[in-house]
Amino acid sequence: MIDRKKIAERFKTVATAAAQKSAALFDKALKSPAVRKAADSLRWGNLRPRLVRGGEIVAAFTREQPKTAAFIYVCLFCAFSIGFLDEPFAMARLSAPQQGNLSALADLNPSGWWFLILAGLWLFYMAVAGLSLTTDVFEKNMVKARAVLFVLLTLALSSGVTLALNIVAGRYTPEFLDTMRLYGFSAFRFRVSETSFPSFAVQSLWAVVVAAASFWPKIRWYLYALAALTTLSTVIAAQCFISDAVMGTYIGIMMYFVARWIVSENRENIPLISL
Hints:
Elements: H1 4-31, H2 33-41, H3 44-64, H4 66-95, H5 100-107, H6 114-131, H7 135-169, H8 174-179, H9 200-213, H10 220-236, H11 242-263
Helix pairs in contact: 3-4, 4-11, 5-10, 6-7, 7-9, 7-11, 9-10, 9-11
């Protein structure tokens, strides 16, 4: 027959001994030089100079290598967002009442139709240039045609990179989270209509806006504001995750610099990537 009283007394004895031993070890650790040094370094008076110095190093690196720094910051934010922000935010938006205005604004982005729109504009300016009766009109329309062609190049580069990343990452869209509670990645999925990292809609918007703004600098801030508002609406309407939009924005912007490097007459002396 099991003597519960003896078992309880034995357990109490062992627990008391373990607690005393733990307290002795903790007291010994507190008295060790290494722990005292670590605790002293974490005091605000000693920690603040290190934080300030670290901030100065990061700021200097960002100024000297802005493109490399932007890549690192975007990747770090996307990793954090994928782990902690994307799923709860999308679930909250999917369960919330539909925001008609936000969805309508997000739907204003032509997304995949940008190629046809730009191709149509290019053909229009080329036709007008061909039918022009004066050299001045011809030159003006040729300049516009070349500008549209540059925007089209930027969009093509951005879309190509986005397509490759979507296939490799194979991230489930928010629609899967809503209907099947699927969240995550399934690598090498070729049904890109069911993937969302990076966002096709967001990257195409920013590629077109940034490239177009380079030809119309007077209205560039209005274009940037419209693109930012549309991107925010796309996320709030749960058409893509936060990290999808951030990476899509980054790719659209960076492909503008790649396109500018491609058309540069001095590209042999300008490195595309500098680390």
